[in-house]
Write a structure and sequence with these properties.
The chain has helices at 39-49, 68-83, 94-103, and strands at 15-22, 25-34, 55-66, 87-92, 111-113. It has a single domain (15-113), classed as STAS domain (Transcription Regulator spoIIAA). Helix content is 32%, strand content 34%. β1 (15-22) and β2 (25-34) form a beta hairpin. The chain is α/β, with parallel strands linked by helices. This is STAS domain-containing protein. Residues 1-18 have a biased composition (Polar residues). It holds the Pfam family STAS. InterPro entries: STAS_dom, STAS_dom_sf.
Length: 114
């Protein structure tokens, strides 16, 4: 019998949560990894849970991997917020910030960093 063991770390799935600190404010927090397999899930979650807010805080500080597909989701969120007059804040750590800086060199997407 041959048994193989992978030394690769297990991928952390994406978990999302929502809180409403005030009636017109939605705070969405993501934990885990955002890649091509779940970037649409992030985008749709934000669209679904931020429909009736005036201010959105998207907290990605606990994201451990962030791909360009995640950036595409952020761009869609940015456009939707602009179209619906929602003021949004992107909170990110170094992992997300690095991708946003590379994909948005003119810094059109506002972000707050750790």
């Amino acid at each position: 019998m041959i048994r193989t063991t992978s030394n690769q770390p297990r991928r952390t799935r994406l978990t999302l949560s929502t809180e409403r600190p005030e009636p017109s404010v939605v705070r969405i927090t993501a934990h885990g990894e955002v890649d091509a397999s779940n970037a649409a899930e992030l985008r749709e979650y934000v669209f679904r849970h931020a429909t009736d807010c005036r201010n959105l805080v998207l907290d990605l500080r606990e994201v451990t991997f962030f791909s360009s597909a995640g950036f595409a989701a952020l761009r869609n969120i940015d456009i939707r917020c602009g179209d619906t007059n929602v003021i949004w804040t992107l909170q990110c750590g170094s992992i997300v910030s690095r991708v946003v800086d590379l994909c948005d060199p003119h810094q059109t997407m506002q972000q707050t960093r750790d």
